[in-house]
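Running log. JK asked me to keep both predictions on one page so they can be read side by side. First protein, sequence followed by its tokens:
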Amino acid sequence: MRRIAVLWIGLAFASAVLGAAAAFETRTSRLQAIKTVGIISAIGEEMSLTQAGLTGFGKTGQSASISAWGLDEFIVHQATKLLSGRFRVQPVSYRRVAFAAVRDSPVTPVNLLRSDPFKELVRSDVSPQGLDAYIVITRAKSKLGNGRNVEGVGLAEYRTLLADYGLIHALYEVRVIDGKSFDVIEKRAAAPLDNTATMRIAGPSGAVDATFDGPASSERLRAAIADLITRSLPVTLGDMHLLGSQ
């Protein structure tokens, strides 16, 4: 009986490995077939302020408009430069507010079997239709140290009895959606960057001073967010095998 059990375990493991390899091969072949892409960015036009730590509990989260930053336009521009080496990138129009309104996706491993909320939006709200694929860049979520959620672009203040810490974050994830079937071919959240921040979250972030004069009016914060995106986007797209001759 023990030999039979070991045999069954071995067969199950081999089946799982073969299934994963087949899924990877299918994704790879579908990515290789893509020639034309459109880029959609909808991280949003608000910046959140999260207060945490000994003096931060119980405070209502705040937000401020950053529409003047043109962040989504900046992301489309950066992604276009990176992807143009491999694909023909064509401009697309879309209702950004519809994509930004979806608040579904935590930073989790890719799950291509789960119904994805952006599939129908690409089918119904993007023009022109018929490109080989659409690259969709939207907010992602992560947990702060005390268990609070942070999402998208924001500034987190963490206070202790001895010190205050500030953390700027730009959390996003990238989907590749098939332009014909609207299946999600690949999905990945941007990973953390190497930094010396005291607080760490599952996505691009960096340390800043805890004091500020308002996130919407601070050029320093805008530049910090742009830097996070500039440094993390090529890493994320590279990990998804979307750059160069991959």
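And the second, directly underneath as requested:
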Amino acid sequence: MSGTKLMHDGHDETSDTVGEQAFRRIRSDIISGELKPGQKLKLERLKSQYGVSVSTLREILNRLTTEDLVIAEGQRGFEVSPASVDNLREVGDLRLVLENHALALSFASGDLDWEADVVAAHHKLSSIERALLAGDKNRTFEWIKYDFAFHHSLIAACGSKSLLAIHQSIFDRFMRYHLLAASFRGDGVSHDHRELFDFALARDVAGAQAKLAAHIHAGIDHILSTGKL
């Protein structure tokens, strides 16, 4: 997946400062696995790679420690947070708590425009999943982007920008493990998404929450089955 960038939120980098662009690039490279778990983050090397000063890099890496994507080692510098089974399960649990709460709020408040966005997001995701199921393994990274877009659409009407922002951070940390596994789960994940879509249009909160729990736990089991952790 070298060279790929995790840009799943429609953000336009042209409006960012150089430092903000570097922050987004480094964050994306950690999530995508280009910067590997446990990798030492040498400031001089990063300075030339991302085109920012050492002081800016320190600010960026300290920001990333708040998302648990980077570990600060005191005088020894920084490293990419390691990947572990325990952390995967913890992140999965956090995602489930946040997303379940946001689903209930969103289903209660979503209007016709929200429904249209859910339909569009599911259509795009299901198209990518059909390609993957047909054997196009090069679409795995693209699937990550549309997977987030679909799950985000389900909770977009929750009415809380803070909840959406925290959910995105946790979702990205969860997807980091999928990208490390570099493996698509197959028919099961596609069926899960179709059921979540149906529950959303029916405003069935209990059904969606139960399906989401099964969906996340199946994702964890799949990641572990690849033996990449």
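Observation for JK regarding the second prediction: Strands lie at 40-41, 70-72, 78-80.
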